[in-house]
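Q: I'm writing a short methods note and want an example of a predicted protein-small molecule complex. Could you take the sequence and the SMILES for calcium ion and return the bound structure as C-alpha cells? Please keep the output block clean; save any remarks for afterwards.
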Amino acid sequence: MTTIPPPYSGFSGTRCWVGEPAAYCENAGKPTPPCPTAQPTTEFLGAGLQGTPHCMDWSTVGVLHVSDDDIVPNAVYDVQAIDCECDFGDETNYSAPLTITTSRWGDLVRNCAVYPCGPPDGTVGIPGDVTAVLDKFKNLGPPAYNPAVIKSRADLDWNIPNRRVDISDVTFCLDAFRGFPYPPLPPAEWPGPNGCP
Ligand SMILES: [Ca+2]
Ligand SMILES: [Ca+2]
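A: Understood, no commentary inside the block.
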C-alpha cells in the first residue's frame, strides 16, 4: 500500500498479501458460481487481501481482479511476488514492483459512445460512468452482450465490495458525480482499510 490518500494515509507503506483466487460470476445479481445461464454467463477470477501469504504457482492464474477494504480510490499500490521459501524481510528477494494507481471514486470508464467504453478518464459523468454502472446493474450490453463495464469496476458498494452490482452501486456513482467524496459514509458504516490483520 504505497501511497494511500487521506483519511487513510496512515496505511501508506504497509503491506498485504493476495489471497487464494476464486471464481465469481460476471452477472450483476449473482456473486459466486453456479452462475446464471442468462447473459452474461462468463466468470472471472477474484481474490481479496490478507495478513499472511498464500503460496501457490501464480504464473498459472492469468488476469486476477483483487478487491478489498484496503483497496481505495486515488491510491498507489506496488504489486510484487516472492518465492515462499525466501526471506520475506529481504527486499532483494522480491520481483520488481508493478505499480497500479486506482481511479478516483466513481470513475469507472472513459465514455461509452463506442464499446467497450475505455478505461477511467479522471472524471465522473452521467453519460459514461453512471450509465455504465446502471447498464451493468441491468446486465445490458449492445447489441450482442458486450459489457459497458466489468463487475470488478462497477462494484463500488460495500466497504469490502460484495461482488454484486445493484442500486447501491449506482447510487454511490451518482453521489460521486455530485461531488461527494470517498469514503461515502461515516466510519461506523464504512470503516475503510484495516491494514490486513
Ligand atoms: Ca469517467
Ligand atoms: Ca456492490
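A: Remarks, as requested: The pocket of calcium ion (ligand 2) is lined by residues 155, 157, 161-162, 164-165, 168-169 (CB under 6 Å). The CA atoms of residues 71 and 99 lie 13 Å apart.
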